[in-house]
Amino acid sequence: MHSSNYDPHILRHNTSFLLFSLLNALRTELLHAKQPERKIDICGVIGACVTALEALVEGLCGPDPRMFAYCPSDDVQRLRKIAVGQNGSDTISFANLIALIDGVTTALQTHDARATTLARRAIEACAQLLGLAYPAPNMDIVQVGSGSEPQFTLVQLPPVPIRPGRHASKPVAKLNCQEGDLLSQLFSQMFTIEFPASEVCAAMCLKFQEELPIELDLLLGQQTYEEGRHAMLVKGAFERLGGSIEDFDPCFDIWDNFLIGKSLAETLCIEHFLGEGYALGGDYMMADQQHGLGRYDLEAIFLSLQADEILHVKNGLDWFRRLAGEDAQYLIARLEQQVAVPPPPEPWFGADLRRSVGFTESEIRQQKLFSQSLSL
Ligand SMILES: [Fe+2]
Ligand SMILES: [Fe+2]
């Protein structure tokens, strides 16, 4: 059903409100979830949510729907059926929730007034999915106003936790791993880097919601999705090699560094400039090492991680400089002593790569000195 008399502004308003509420509810759940599999699933749904919101923000439901005529008209109905299960009472799954949110995107692209209904259904499905791990009252949708165009609001989300959840079972003492042990390297990649990065990107949006521009909100949502995908790829390799998550201790350094940030600019400086930015090239180093050992599957994984990291740093630097303005150099100097991550040694240091993501010549020199001081 295409509604020719449905006001696209109201469609946009209601649907975007519901989707942004859903995105933040998912971010909150990511920070509280304990099971790594669940975190990966949530990052996947966050990715779908960002895609739907981009369809709104980029004006895909603009004045000319003909450009989306390729969307089959029965898609929305079909996805709705998937979302509620075959018999209407099946328990929702993460895959169904993603299908439902994809349905919102399709509805938006075809000017279908059911986008709002589907987005509301997605929130309800999400509340059902989150179950006990998340206090259900926080997911309540309150309908405000009356008339044919309902407006929705979501009650207050709980605060960002002091420490994000980890695996449900209590970690045992760290294994006595030799330096460079592959399983400990992969575990560290997951729990020292990828999961914390997804959590930090989610947490900074919740913590600094008041000052968060929409473009950055979506970029960080996309990054949360990608960090979850990185964790998923590394977890697969870790398990294929016989690794067990319970055999290692999680590391909270990146999360604890995030807590130091007192503003969005400081937090971007910590995570994107001094964290992922300084560490840029580290995934190339891992890929090369795996290549040398003949582990081409792992080489491919680290190369795909590196491709995403380049954009994370480029976007992060760009927004850090925009938000920090004239304070940028002062903030970098103040925070560097506390949280800077060691840059990789040559040949992976990559001055040209650093230039391409937006580091200045003096910043690259500083990072080079730091890198060299570590190999002395
Ligand atoms: Fe990553
Ligand atoms: Fe990243």
Brief summary:
Helices cover 64% and strands 2% of the residues.
Descriptive report:
This protein has helices at 8-32, 36-57, 75-84, 94-109, 114-130, 182-207, 214-240, 253-260, 264-277, 282-292, 296-324, 328-339, 351-357, 361-375, and strands at residues 141-144, 151-154. It is mainly α and 376 residues long. It is 64% helix and 2% strand. The protein folds into 2 domains: 8-151, no CATH class; 182-375, Ferritin (Up-down Bundle), CATH 1.20.1260. The longest helix is centred in the C-terminal third of the chain and has 29 residues, at 296-324. The protein contains 14 helices and 2 strands. A two-stranded antiparallel ribbon has the order 1-2. Bound molecules: fe (ii) ion (2 copies). One fe (ii) ion is lined by residues 197, 227, 276, 309, 312.
